[in-house]
Backbone:
């Protein structure tokens, strides 16, 4: 087992990994930018090293500085968290070359599944349902038009690398496809340094269902069941829950087994999330694979009792999985609300500044993952998420009632947050019925 693990990230996920390391008897090493200097969670690490200015490119995305911090602190492994360098195969390769264990998949498995084109090809071999669309990268406009005519509009243009809604364009006709193809490529180059795009059939009304998986270096792979992440705004998830409401047990079994099969066939070691879109008849199609721990991993932890971060560390140290598939027995229902420092009244404008009021909820079945305390200054440099509020209940109705109560207790100021929006959603009739699709929130906000 590792003796010292450097966490190449910040905020709540850095704190999450620090806690897991402490429980395992591992010394956690934190890194921070000038913008995060003085953050309280840094005091919980064994050491904390400044790696540069607030700009991510000069700190959390700077591979040389992170490797230097690992070497000077004698870290024998690096946990990348999510975002930043977590899905950067080159970073994983640099770690290997420097004899530092990367807590995640091999660079080869990451590159295979992290690229949406090669991932689709692997999924086809593993007999995982995929969307009709181009077999690979679309290089010419004429090819795009030909594929769209074959599968029928609407279609979606997607960047082969990255995610988060960047490099994506929906086209309902040839004119919008021509324009969308060009702008998607430009955005993909700017966001990921890779302008490759492909085309898939677009579902007008679909649910976002994803399956948590874990594989080890001994050829085993299991799933930890599914999450529904359909409440989104601009392809960014706001609410996640597990299990997915009203999914037919046979369909649940099919989608979960197909995800584990894909991970096993890819010889993947570590945590991965296989994402699907599900239509109104509960036919499902693979969307992509996230080769890292997800923001919403605690939802799965609450219903399965599996510590996903601990399991990631174990398998990266060469240990076999602690669980077999038959050991995973989900219990109850869990919901997560992402609390962002944004103002929903002003088009979700970021709300940076000092937190003067911080009164988080508590009680039975409530979990709060956050690095924020009273007096914390929310920097403008990074993602606006400041907390993840989770609840676990006996069933979905119980979980919703518990979340309503927890949100009512949650007081934050003077910065603006999405707490009020989440309270509205918990009281929304459509959400209560479990009839939400990926465009539901956007329709709701237009009313």
Residues:
């Amino acid at each position: 087992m590792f003796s010292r693990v450097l966490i190449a990230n910040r905020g709540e996920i850095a704190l999450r990994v620090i806690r897991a390391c402490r429980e395992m008897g591992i010394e956690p090493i934190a890194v921070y930018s000038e913008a995060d200097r003085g953050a309280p969670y840094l005091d919980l690490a064994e050491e904390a090293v400044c790696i540069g200015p607030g700009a991510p490119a000069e700190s959390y995305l700077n591979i040389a500085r992170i490797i230097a911090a690992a070497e000077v602190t004698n870290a024998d492994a690096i946990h990348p968290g999510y975002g930043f360098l977590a899905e950067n195969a080159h970073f994983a390769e640099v770690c290997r070359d420097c004899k530092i264990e990367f807590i995640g998949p091999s660079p080869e498995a990451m590159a295979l599944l992290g690229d949406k084109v090669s991932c689709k090809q692997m999924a086809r071999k593993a007999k995982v349902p995929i969307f009709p669309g181009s077999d690979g990268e679309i290089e010419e406009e004429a090819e795009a038009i030909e594929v769209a005519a074959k599968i029928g509009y609407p279609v979606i243009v997607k960047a082969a690398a990255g995610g988060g809604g960047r490099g994506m364009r929906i086209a309902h006709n040839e004119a919008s496809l021509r324009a969308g193809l060009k702008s998607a490529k430009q955005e993909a180059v700017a966001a990921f340094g890779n302008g490759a795009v492909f085309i898939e059939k677009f579902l007008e009304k679909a649910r976002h269902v994803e399956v948590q998986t874990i594989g080890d270096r001994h050829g085993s792979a299991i799933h930890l069941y599914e999450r529904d992440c359909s409440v989104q705004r601009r392809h960014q998830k706001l609410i996640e829950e597990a299990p997915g409401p009203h999914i037919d047990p046979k369909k649940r079994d099919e989608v979960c087994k197909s995800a584990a099969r894909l991970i096993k066939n890819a010889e993947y070691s570590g945590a991965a999330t296989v994402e699907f879109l599900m239509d109104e008849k509960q036919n499902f199609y693979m969307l992509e694979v996230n080769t890292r721990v997800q923001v919403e991993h605690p939802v799965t932890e609450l219903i399965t009792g599996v510590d996903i971060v601990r399991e990631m560390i174990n398998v990266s140290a060469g240990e076999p999985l602690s669980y077999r598939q038959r050991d995973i027995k989900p219990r109850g229902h869990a919901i997560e609300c992402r609390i962002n420092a944004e103002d929903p009244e002003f088009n979700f404008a970021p709300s940076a500044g000092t937190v003067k009021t911080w009164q988080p909820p508590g009680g039975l079945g409530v979990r709060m993952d956050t690095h924020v305390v009273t007096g914390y200054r929310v920097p403008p440099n990074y993602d606006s998420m400041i907390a993840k509020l989770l609840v676990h209940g006996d069933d979905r109705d119980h979980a919703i009632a518990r979340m309503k109560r927890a949100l009512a207790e949650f007081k934050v100021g003077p910065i603006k947050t999405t707490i009020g929006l989440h309270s509205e959603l918990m009281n929304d009739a459509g959400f209560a019925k479990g009839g939400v699709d990926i465009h539901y929130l956007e329709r709701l906000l237009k009313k």
Observations:
- Residues 128 and 258 are 6 Å apart (CA to CA).
